[in-house]
Amino acid sequence: MPHRHHPTAGWEATANRAREIARDLYPHQVEGVGFLLGRRRSILADDMGLGKTRQSVIAMTEAEPVGPWLVVCPASVKHNWVREIGLALGEAETWLVGPGPPPPSGFAGWIVVNYDLLKRDIEALLDHAFTGVVFDEGHYLKNHRAQRSRLARRLVVDRDIDPVVHVLTGTPLTNRPRDLFPLLQLVGHALGHSFLAFAKRYCDGHKNDYGYWVTAGASNVAELSVQLQGIMLRRNKDEVLDLPEKQRTWIEVDVDPEVRERLNDAVGHFLSGERDGRGRRMGIAMFSGARRRLAVAKVPQTLDYVKGAIDQGEKVLVFSCFTHATRRFTRALGEVAVTITGEVPTAKRQAIVDRFQNDDSIRVLIGQIHAAGIGINLTAARQVVFNDLDWVPANHWQAEDRTHRIGQTGTVNVTYMVARYTLEEFIRTILETKSRIVDDVVEGKALGNAMESDVLVELRRMATYLDEAARSRGEDLDQGAIEDLLRAASERYVAENSASISRHARRELKPVSERAIQALAQALAGPARVVYAVVSASDPRAHHRVEVEGADINCDCKGFSYRGMCRHVRDLKHALATGMPVPEQYRLLRSA
User: Fold this and answer.
1) Is residue 251 within 8 Å of 417, Cβ to Cβ?
2) What distance in Å separates the CA atoms of residue 520 and residue 578, rounded to the nearest whole number?
3) At 252, which helix (H) or strand (E)?
4) Integer Cα distance of 512 and 55 in angstroms
5) 191 DSSP 8-state letter
6) Distance from chain centroid for Cα 303
7) What does the DSSP 8-state code read for residue 209?
8) What does the angle CA 137 – CA 143 – CA 144 come to, to the nearest 5 degrees?
9) Local structure of residue 219 (DSSP, 8 states)
10) Which has the least CB within 10 A, 164, 176, 188, 391?
11) Cα-flanking dihedrals φ and ψ of residue 461, to 5°?
C-alpha cells in the first residue's frame, strides 16, 4: 500500500497535498502519478514525450519518502535521469554509476545505473535495501531468460525488502504478449507466475512439428488488456490534449576525454585573446575539426536513443552538422533509414522525402542540418533528434520546423544530445534561453538580429568577462579551468537574459480538474479492500475467497496458485474493469 502522506490528517489535508503535487504537472501527468500510487508495483507505458520520468520520480517519493532509490536505464539517458530528479525534487542526492562503482551501503539518495553495468555491479547493488526501483525503457528486459532480465529480478524479487517498482516503457507490449511477461514478473502480477500458462493463453502457445513450444503469437488479447487494467497504464500522444505543440529535451552524454579536451583546447586558445596573422582570435581554425570529432564520438549514444524510439513505433528525424556522422548513422540503421546531405542532388531529395512520408518501412530520415533542415515537409515524424549542435540557433529552429508545420496534428518532441563538460553546454544554454524567448517562431524566423547571432559571437561577447574571471583566480587555461569558465559563461548568459525570458514566459499549464485532484487524493490515501466468496466450479458445496485490493485480485483456488490466473479472477476483473455489475455468484464478505 502506498505511503499515506498525512496518516493522521483528514481528507481535506490529503486533497490539499494532491493539489500541491498537481501544481507543476500536466493533467495527464496527475492521472499518471495517481495510477503509480495506486499499487506498489506497476507499469507506465506512455508514449515518448509524455513525461514518464517526472511522473515516476514524484510518485516514488510520495510512496516512499526515504531512500535509497535505484534507477536502471539505458546509458544514453543516465544523465537525463539525474537532471530530471533535480528538476522534480529540487535538492536531491544522486549517485551516477559508471565508470565508478555504486556508493557504499548506507547511501540514502538516488542511484542511477545503466543496464550494461548490472552484471559488473549486481553484488554491490544488492547491499542496498532499496525502498524504490525504476526500470526505464522496460522493453530492454523483454526476454525473461536473458541475463539482463535475471539480474533485474534479483534486485526486486525474493529479497527481504518490498520496494516500490515502476517499469517505464513506451512500447505497446500487448502486440507482443511474450515481451510483457518479464515485466509482469518484476511488478509481482499474478500473470507472471508461469510463463507456460501465460504463453498458452495469451501468446498462442503451441508445439511445432518438432515438439518445441512456439510462443511468438498473440491470443485473447482483449482479455489480456482487461486483466492489465490497474497495473499497466498506456496513453498515446493523440489521446493527450494538454501538451504544447513542441517540447524540447536536453540529454547529456559522456564522450572520450581526448575528444572532449580537443574541443576545449580550441576554446582555451580562443579565450586567450591571441591573434593569428590575419588578426583572428586563435582557436577558430581548430573548432571545425574538434566539433567533427565530437559529433562522430556521440553517434553510438544517439543511435541507442533513436533505436529506442523506433522500437516504440516512432518515425524519427536525426540531424547532424557533419557528413562524417550522417554516414555512420546510415551504415548503422541500414534499410529502415533514408539520408539527405549536401552530397544528394537537389532534384533527388523530394523522392527521398516522399519515401519517408509514405513508406511505413522507412522509420528514420538522417539529415545534414543545412541540406535537410530547410524547405521540406517531414510531418510523418514527431521525434526530432540533434546529434550535435549547430552554432546558429536559427538553423535548429528551421530544422525542428520540418515536422512542426501545417499537416502536423500532434506534439513534436525535440531531443538535443549534449556532450558534458564541453563547449556544447554553453551552446545548450544559448539555445535553451533563446528557444524560450522564441517558442512561437514559425519557419525559423527569429526576433531580430540578436536572436540570430551565432555561438562565436556570444562567446566573443563573453570573452572579456571570462578573461577577467580567469585572471582573478590566477589560473592557467587548463581543462578544469576551461570547464569552469564555460559554466560561468552559461550562468552569466542566463542572468543577462532573465528579463527577456520573463517577458516571454512559457505558456501556463492547463488547470487540473477537481475530479483529477480527488482521484489523486484517493491514491494518496491508499487502495480500498473488498473480499468476496464465490462458489467453486468443481464442488458446489465449497467456496473460494477472492480478495480485491486496488488493482489486484487474488483467489485462494489451486488454479490461481499454480498459474496466476483462474476463472474467478478473470470474470470479476472483467466486471470491475468494464463497469458491469459484479456477477451474482460473488457474495460480498467485507469492504474497507
Assistant:
1) yes
2) 21
3) strand 246-253
4) 15
5) G
6) 15
7) T
8) 105
9) -
10) 176
11) -65, -35
